[in-house]
């Protein structure tokens, strides 16, 4: 598995980039947002990657941040969502807004994404919340940090970060350091992502 690639940005296309690493050009599929953010042709860049291996295809998918990679991995785990659809979704919603939509059951936000109808949105919410419950069941031996869940916003942020694939114990350690009283849930999630992405 290839975790990330560092190299010179040789080319930017509509749906992919080419990175030159020691004379080898890696074609990496990315969302349009990531392609805009990655930098200028000729610059040295680092791209977090997901390698998809199929019978007839081996492809690399790239992301500017670990949060985008985690969201992509969660999305392709939902039945009916393929890699290309996941990239389109990533181009239209941030990981923090996506996680918040999942934990709050916000079908309308998800429905507004290209290629996602009401049934797909409901299935996405259901499957990702089920993963959250499964993860909680696996972590039964884990003892929560006292006083981390200071309010409903902190609890929602913890659940949203779990949707993105982070372990509850890691999330709670980070949330315990954030003053959640003056922040919105999305701001708490964004701050949590900054610390978790280090």
Structure commentary:
This protein has helices at residues 32-37, 66-76, 83-92, 95-104, 107-111, 118-138, 152-163, 168-175, 185-196; strands at 4-12, 16-21, 24-29, 44-54, 57-63. With 198 residues, it is α+β, with helices and mostly antiparallel strands. The longest helix is centred in the middle third of the chain and has 21 residues, at 118-138. 33% of the residues are buried. α7 (152-163) packs across α9. β4 (44-54) and β5 form a beta hairpin. 48% of the residues lie in helices and 20% in strands. It has nine helices and five strands, in the order βββαββαααααααα.
Outline of the structure:
By secondary structure, this protein is of the alpha+beta class.
Distance between the termini: 21 Å
**SS strand fraction:** 15-25%
Please report the first level of CATH classification, the CATH class of the largest domain. Answer: Mainly Alpha
In angstroms, what is the radius of gyration? 18 Å
Can you count the beta strands?
Answer: 5
CATH topology type of the largest domain:
DNA polymerase, domain 1
Shape: globular
Number of domains: 2
Spatial order of the strands forming the largest sheet: 1-2-3-5-4
Low-confidence stretches: 136-146
Helix content: 40-55%
Roughly what is the average pLDDT, rounded to an integer? 84
Structural class: alpha+beta
**Number of helices, counting only DSSP H or I runs of 4 residues or more:** 9
CATH architecture verdict of the largest domain: Orthogonal Bundle
Please, what is the CATH homologous superfamily of the largest domain?
A: 5' to 3' exonuclease, C-terminal subdomain
Sequence of secondary-structure elements: EEEHEEHHHHHHHH
- Largest sheet features: 5 strands, mixed, barrel
């Amino acid at each position: 598995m290839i975790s990330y690639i560092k190299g010179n940005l040789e080319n930017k296309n509509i749906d992919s980039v080419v990175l030159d690493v020691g004379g080898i050009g890696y074609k990496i599929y990315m969302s349009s947002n990531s392609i805009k953010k990655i930098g200028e042709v000729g610059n040295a860049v680092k791209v977090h990657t997901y390698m998809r291996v199929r019978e007839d295809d081996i492809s690399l998918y790239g992301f500017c941040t670990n949060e985008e990679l985690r969201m992509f991995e969660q999305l392709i785990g939902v039945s009916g969502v393929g890699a290309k659809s996941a990239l389109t979704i990533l181009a239209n919603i941030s990981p923090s807004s996506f996680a918040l939509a999942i934990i709050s059951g916000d079908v309308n936000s998800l429905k507004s994404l290209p290629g996602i109808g009401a049934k797909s949105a409901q299935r996405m919410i259901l499957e990702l919340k089920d993963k959250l419950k499964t993860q909680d069941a696996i972590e039964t031996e884990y003892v929560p940090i006292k006083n981390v869940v200071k309010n409903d916003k902190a609890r929602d942020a913890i659940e949203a970060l779990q949707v993105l694939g982070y372990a509850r114990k890691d999330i709670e350690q980070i949330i315990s350091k954030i003053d959640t009283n003056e922040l919105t849930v999305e701001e708490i999630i964004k701050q949590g992502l900054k610390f978790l992405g280090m």
